[in-house]
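Aim 2, interim progress: modelling of the nicotinamide-adenine-dinucleotide-bound target.
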Amino acid sequence: MAGRLANKVAIVTGAGSRGPGLGNGKATSILFAREGARVLCVDSVLERAEETVKEIAREGGDASAGAADVTRASDCRAMVAAAVERYGRLDILHNNVGIESRAGILEVSEEEWDRVMAVDLKSMMLASQAAIPMLLERGGAITCVSSIAALRGHQRTAYAAAKAGVIGLVITLAEQLAPKRIRVNAIAPGQVWTPMVAYHGEPGREERRRRTPLGIEGTAWDIGWAAVYLASDEARWVTGQTLIVDGGLTLTTR
Ligand SMILES: NC(=O)c1ccc[n+]([C@@H]2O[C@H](COP(=O)([O-])OP(=O)(O)OC[C@H]3O[C@@H](n4cnc5c(N)ncnc54)[C@H](O)[C@@H]3O)[C@@H](O)[C@H]2O)c1
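Predicted structure of the complex, ligand included:
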């Protein structure tokens, strides 16, 4: 069913991948373009965004790359201005940027806590603040990538708190923006295999797959398809929700 995002303009943050393979933002950008959106692929490392754009162009899609550190308000404003300048409008903001932090409560430093809060949570508020004036014109969709770490205990202190904050942010934005026809939702990925978690190595990868009730490995495509749905008009009556995409992991007990 191609064309689910036809005529729409999207920004995807963290649209590159930190290493070989496919990150969630990269897969989402590619699927957005396959479904007909024009996509501004934004990353703090420009070459990573360019790599995603190259893949989209190879398939005949329409995308361009931009550099922005979304922890900075001025970068977020420039990112939105670039999308509007290039494509004349904005319909979708996909807040994908996130970094992991595995430290427990007695290990996490104040610096690490502040950094994770800035990258994983504040960036989504700043990018939304910059995008909303453009989305007000004809309504739109904001999707924020959280994690099942926000919903189940899994040691990560700052990461879990930031990702839970994302869900709270989504709920308040959804309520504030509903009268303006701007929908705001979250995706909570489970243990998908992306470059962000490549440090687990092959044994860890297999363990993650086995732990998942469906018994198959989740990939960035699974997250990207959820993003397509939430950004599309198919989800026109869905707002303030967290879509868990985890192969059933949060259904299980320890
Ligand atoms: N991989 C998993 O198992 C998993 C599980 C749950 C949630 N997630 C979430 O999915 C999202 C994407 O993860 P991924 O695996 O694709 O990661 P990734 O590291 O491969 O890609 C993220 C991209 O974001 C960019 N980036 C980092 N900080 C930035 C900043 N301040 N401004 C702009 N760009 C920045 C990086 O350069 C990188 O290219 C994250 O929010 C992550 O927390 C991943």
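The first strand starts at residue 9 and ends at 13. DSSP finds seven helices and seven strands in the chain.
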